[in-house]
Design brief:
There is one protein chain. This protein is mainly beta. Helix content is 8%, strand content 66%. It has one helix at 3-24; strands spanning 42-55, 60-73, 76-89, 92-107, 112-123, 128-144, 148-163, 174-175, 178-191, 194-205, 208-223, 228-239, 249-260. It has a 12-stranded antiparallel barrel. Strand 3 and strand 4 (92-107) form a beta hairpin.
Length: 261
Protein backbone atom coordinates (compact mmCIF):
# COMPACT_ATOMS: atom_id res chain seq x y z
CA UNK A 1 0.00 0.00 0.00
CA UNK A 2 1.39 3.43 -0.93
CA UNK A 3 2.06 6.11 1.69
CA UNK A 4 -0.53 8.39 0.04
CA UNK A 5 -3.27 5.78 0.50
CA UNK A 6 -2.06 4.72 3.94
CA UNK A 7 -2.09 8.14 5.65
CA UNK A 8 -5.90 8.82 5.35
CA UNK A 9 -6.60 5.30 6.62
CA UNK A 10 -4.10 5.88 9.42
CA UNK A 11 -5.83 9.09 10.53
CA UNK A 12 -9.25 7.43 10.53
CA UNK A 13 -7.87 4.54 12.59
CA UNK A 14 -6.20 7.00 14.97
CA UNK A 15 -9.44 8.82 15.75
CA UNK A 16 -11.46 5.62 16.14
CA UNK A 17 -8.98 3.88 18.43
CA UNK A 18 -8.28 6.90 20.59
CA UNK A 19 -11.95 7.56 21.21
CA UNK A 20 -12.43 3.96 22.34
CA UNK A 21 -9.39 3.95 24.63
CA UNK A 22 -10.05 7.44 26.03
CA UNK A 23 -13.58 6.48 27.02
CA UNK A 24 -12.19 3.89 29.43
CA UNK A 25 -9.19 6.07 30.51
CA UNK A 26 -6.81 3.25 30.18
CA UNK A 27 -0.94 2.76 25.90
CA UNK A 28 9.27 1.03 22.13
CA UNK A 29 9.75 4.55 21.18
CA UNK A 30 7.15 6.72 22.81
CA UNK A 31 7.47 9.15 25.67
CA UNK A 32 4.56 11.26 26.81
CA UNK A 33 5.76 14.79 26.18
CA UNK A 34 2.25 16.16 25.75
CA UNK A 35 1.21 16.58 29.38
CA UNK A 36 1.78 19.83 31.26
CA UNK A 37 2.37 22.10 28.26
CA UNK A 38 2.59 25.74 29.38
CA UNK A 39 0.54 28.73 28.29
CA UNK A 40 2.26 31.82 29.80
CA UNK A 41 5.21 33.47 28.03
CA UNK A 42 8.63 33.16 29.64
CA UNK A 43 10.69 30.36 31.18
CA UNK A 44 9.19 27.52 33.23
CA UNK A 45 10.95 24.77 35.17
CA UNK A 46 9.76 21.50 36.69
CA UNK A 47 11.33 18.91 38.94
CA UNK A 48 9.58 15.65 39.74
CA UNK A 49 9.95 12.27 41.37
CA UNK A 50 7.85 9.12 41.08
CA UNK A 51 7.68 5.51 42.08
CA UNK A 52 6.16 2.64 40.14
CA UNK A 53 5.77 -1.07 39.66
CA UNK A 54 5.68 -2.87 36.33
CA UNK A 55 4.27 -6.16 35.09
CA UNK A 56 5.01 -7.65 31.69
CA UNK A 57 8.54 -8.11 30.35
CA UNK A 58 9.88 -7.33 33.82
CA UNK A 59 8.62 -7.28 37.40
CA UNK A 60 10.16 -4.56 39.51
CA UNK A 61 9.78 -1.53 41.75
CA UNK A 62 11.12 1.71 40.28
CA UNK A 63 12.08 5.17 41.47
CA UNK A 64 12.53 7.97 38.97
CA UNK A 65 13.52 11.63 38.79
CA UNK A 66 12.62 14.01 35.99
CA UNK A 67 13.19 17.58 34.90
CA UNK A 68 11.64 19.86 32.33
CA UNK A 69 12.38 23.30 30.87
CA UNK A 70 9.88 25.30 28.78
CA UNK A 71 10.35 28.64 27.07
CA UNK A 72 7.47 30.45 25.36
CA UNK A 73 7.63 33.64 23.37
CA UNK A 74 4.69 34.71 21.26
CA UNK A 75 3.94 31.97 18.76
CA UNK A 76 7.04 29.92 19.63
CA UNK A 77 7.39 27.23 22.29
CA UNK A 78 10.50 25.14 22.92
CA UNK A 79 10.81 22.57 25.68
CA UNK A 80 13.25 19.91 26.86
CA UNK A 81 12.37 16.92 29.04
CA UNK A 82 14.80 14.57 30.78
CA UNK A 83 14.21 11.49 32.91
CA UNK A 84 16.33 8.87 34.65
CA UNK A 85 14.86 5.80 36.37
CA UNK A 86 16.39 3.25 38.73
CA UNK A 87 14.90 -0.11 39.65
CA UNK A 88 15.43 -2.78 42.26
CA UNK A 89 15.10 -6.43 41.32
CA UNK A 90 16.33 -9.41 43.32
CA UNK A 91 17.90 -7.07 45.84
CA UNK A 92 20.06 -5.27 43.27
CA UNK A 93 19.65 -1.64 42.30
CA UNK A 94 20.48 -0.58 38.76
CA UNK A 95 19.66 2.08 36.21
CA UNK A 96 17.04 0.89 33.79
CA UNK A 97 15.90 3.79 31.62
CA UNK A 98 16.87 7.31 30.57
CA UNK A 99 15.77 9.70 27.86
CA UNK A 100 15.92 13.31 26.74
CA UNK A 101 13.37 14.81 24.39
CA UNK A 102 13.34 18.26 22.77
CA UNK A 103 10.52 19.83 20.80
CA UNK A 104 9.93 23.13 19.02
CA UNK A 105 6.40 24.38 18.30
CA UNK A 106 5.34 27.33 16.17
CA UNK A 107 1.70 28.45 15.97
CA UNK A 108 0.93 29.22 12.32
CA UNK A 109 -2.69 29.97 13.18
CA UNK A 110 -4.94 29.88 16.25
CA UNK A 111 -5.84 26.24 15.67
CA UNK A 112 -2.74 24.97 13.83
CA UNK A 113 0.79 24.49 15.24
CA UNK A 114 3.87 23.06 13.52
CA UNK A 115 6.19 20.76 15.50
CA UNK A 116 9.84 19.65 15.17
CA UNK A 117 11.21 17.10 17.64
CA UNK A 118 14.13 14.84 18.50
CA UNK A 119 14.81 12.24 21.19
CA UNK A 120 17.56 10.05 22.65
CA UNK A 121 16.57 7.06 24.80
CA UNK A 122 17.77 3.79 26.33
CA UNK A 123 15.76 1.16 28.21
CA UNK A 124 17.44 -2.10 29.14
CA UNK A 125 14.16 -3.73 30.18
CA UNK A 126 13.09 -3.84 26.50
CA UNK A 127 16.66 -4.60 25.28
CA UNK A 128 17.07 -1.03 23.99
CA UNK A 129 20.68 0.15 24.05
CA UNK A 130 20.03 3.30 22.01
CA UNK A 131 17.13 4.96 20.24
CA UNK A 132 17.59 8.15 18.21
CA UNK A 133 14.61 9.72 16.49
CA UNK A 134 13.67 12.96 14.78
CA UNK A 135 10.59 14.16 13.01
CA UNK A 136 8.05 16.85 12.22
CA UNK A 137 4.31 17.21 12.27
CA UNK A 138 1.27 19.38 12.80
CA UNK A 139 -0.89 19.83 15.91
CA UNK A 140 -4.58 20.75 15.65
CA UNK A 141 -6.63 22.33 18.43
CA UNK A 142 -10.07 20.70 18.54
CA UNK A 143 -11.40 22.07 21.86
CA UNK A 144 -9.80 24.43 24.37
CA UNK A 145 -11.94 25.87 27.17
CA UNK A 146 -12.11 25.84 30.97
CA UNK A 147 -13.51 22.28 31.18
CA UNK A 148 -12.08 20.42 28.18
CA UNK A 149 -8.91 20.59 26.11
CA UNK A 150 -8.47 18.27 23.12
CA UNK A 151 -5.58 18.31 20.62
CA UNK A 152 -4.85 16.02 17.67
CA UNK A 153 -1.33 15.65 16.26
CA UNK A 154 0.09 13.81 13.27
CA UNK A 155 3.45 13.66 11.51
CA UNK A 156 6.39 11.52 10.37
CA UNK A 157 9.60 10.49 12.12
CA UNK A 158 12.79 8.57 11.38
CA UNK A 159 13.82 6.18 14.16
CA UNK A 160 17.18 4.45 14.69
CA UNK A 161 17.32 1.60 17.22
CA UNK A 162 20.22 -0.46 18.52
CA UNK A 163 19.17 -3.47 20.61
CA UNK A 164 21.14 -5.75 22.92
CA UNK A 165 22.26 -8.37 20.40
CA UNK A 166 23.34 -10.85 23.10
CA UNK A 167 19.72 -11.15 24.34
CA UNK A 168 17.92 -11.30 20.97
CA UNK A 169 16.38 -14.42 19.44
CA UNK A 170 15.60 -13.48 15.82
CA UNK A 171 14.96 -9.74 15.77
CA UNK A 172 17.61 -7.62 13.98
CA UNK A 173 19.92 -5.75 16.34
CA UNK A 174 19.82 -2.48 14.36
CA UNK A 175 16.72 -1.06 12.63
CA UNK A 176 15.98 2.36 11.10
CA UNK A 177 12.29 2.57 10.15
CA UNK A 178 10.16 5.55 9.15
CA UNK A 179 6.99 5.80 11.21
CA UNK A 180 3.79 7.79 11.16
CA UNK A 181 3.45 9.42 14.59
CA UNK A 182 0.01 10.44 15.85
CA UNK A 183 -1.52 11.44 19.15
CA UNK A 184 -4.74 12.56 20.80
CA UNK A 185 -4.42 14.66 23.95
CA UNK A 186 -7.39 15.14 26.30
CA UNK A 187 -7.67 17.17 29.50
CA UNK A 188 -10.85 17.20 31.61
CA UNK A 189 -11.08 19.69 34.47
CA UNK A 190 -12.92 17.93 37.31
CA UNK A 191 -12.56 20.83 39.74
CA UNK A 192 -10.22 23.72 40.45
CA UNK A 193 -7.76 21.29 42.05
CA UNK A 194 -8.20 18.11 40.00
CA UNK A 195 -7.65 17.18 36.32
CA UNK A 196 -7.90 14.00 34.27
CA UNK A 197 -5.25 13.84 31.54
CA UNK A 198 -5.08 11.22 28.82
CA UNK A 199 -2.71 11.03 25.86
CA UNK A 200 -2.66 8.24 23.29
CA UNK A 201 0.14 7.83 20.73
CA UNK A 202 -0.05 5.57 17.66
CA UNK A 203 3.16 5.06 15.68
CA UNK A 204 2.89 2.52 12.82
CA UNK A 205 5.77 1.69 10.51
CA UNK A 206 4.92 3.07 7.07
CA UNK A 207 6.02 -0.05 5.18
CA UNK A 208 4.35 -2.47 7.61
CA UNK A 209 1.30 -1.08 9.50
CA UNK A 210 1.17 -4.23 11.67
CA UNK A 211 4.42 -3.02 13.23
CA UNK A 212 2.64 -0.42 15.37
CA UNK A 213 3.51 1.06 18.74
CA UNK A 214 0.83 2.37 21.07
CA UNK A 215 1.19 4.34 24.29
CA UNK A 216 -1.75 5.24 26.51
CA UNK A 217 -0.94 7.50 29.48
CA UNK A 218 -3.89 8.24 31.78
CA UNK A 219 -3.37 10.50 34.79
CA UNK A 220 -5.38 11.83 37.70
CA UNK A 221 -3.67 15.03 38.84
CA UNK A 222 -4.27 16.73 42.20
CA UNK A 223 -3.09 20.35 42.34
CA UNK A 224 -1.93 20.76 45.92
CA UNK A 225 -0.97 24.40 45.30
CA UNK A 226 0.00 26.67 42.42
CA UNK A 227 3.46 25.10 42.32
CA UNK A 228 2.93 21.55 43.65
CA UNK A 229 0.89 18.66 42.25
CA UNK A 230 0.47 14.95 42.91
CA UNK A 231 -0.46 12.48 40.16
CA UNK A 232 -1.53 8.86 39.88
CA UNK A 233 -1.10 7.30 36.45
CA UNK A 234 -1.47 4.14 34.41
CA UNK A 235 0.71 3.71 31.32
CA UNK A 236 0.16 0.93 28.80
CA UNK A 237 2.82 0.37 26.12
CA UNK A 238 2.17 -2.00 23.23
CA UNK A 239 4.63 -3.09 20.52
CA UNK A 240 2.91 -4.89 17.65
CA UNK A 241 6.10 -6.73 16.59
CA UNK A 242 8.54 -6.83 19.53
CA UNK A 243 11.75 -8.85 19.63
CA UNK A 244 10.74 -12.53 19.79
CA UNK A 245 11.73 -12.96 23.45
CA UNK A 246 9.64 -9.99 24.69
CA UNK A 247 5.94 -9.62 25.42
CA UNK A 248 3.87 -7.22 23.34
CA UNK A 249 2.51 -5.16 26.26
CA UNK A 250 3.90 -3.54 29.41
CA UNK A 251 1.90 -1.79 32.14
CA UNK A 252 3.26 0.83 34.55
CA UNK A 253 1.35 2.15 37.57
CA UNK A 254 2.92 5.30 39.01
CA UNK A 255 2.45 7.97 41.63
CA UNK A 256 4.58 11.09 41.64
CA UNK A 257 5.14 14.58 43.01
CA UNK A 258 5.90 17.56 40.74
CA UNK A 259 7.19 21.00 41.70
CA UNK A 260 6.91 23.88 39.21
CA UNK A 261 8.66 27.24 39.35
Amino acid sequence: MSCARWIPIQLFTLVALTMIISASQSAVGQVNVERLRKSADGAHFELGADFAFRSGNSEYIQLGVAGRFDYLSGKSHIFTIGNVGYAESNGSAYKNRAFIHQRFNYAFARLVTGELFGQIEQDEFVLLRLRLLGGAGVRLQLIDDDEYTIYLGTGLMVEHEELDESRLVSHPAVVTPIRSTNYLSIRIRISGSMDILNIIYLQPKLTDPADIRILSDGRLVFHVSEHVSWSNSILVRHDGIPPANLKTTDVDVKSGLTIRF
